[in-house]
Specification:
two-stranded antiparallel sheet; alpha+beta
Length: 56
């Protein structure tokens, strides 16, 4: 992300106004490889197994 802008203004009597945000130059990252997902799922399964074993 290169730039984030915020815009705001209000009227003299402050009964109405406008505000907005804009993001410019957004980069899309590559999709994780299947091995990355496998490691993530394995780690989460291990954490779940350890928590369940500690309850007993």
């Amino acid at each position: 992300m290169d730039e984030v802008r915020f815009y705001a203004f209000s009227t003299a009597n402050r009964t109405s106004g406008f505000s907005a945000a804009a993001i410019d130059n957004v980069r899309v990252l590559a999709v994780p490889e299947p091995q990355t997902w496998a490691m993530l799922m394995g780690g989460l399964a291990l954490i779940g197994w350890r928590r369940r074993a500690n309850r007993r």
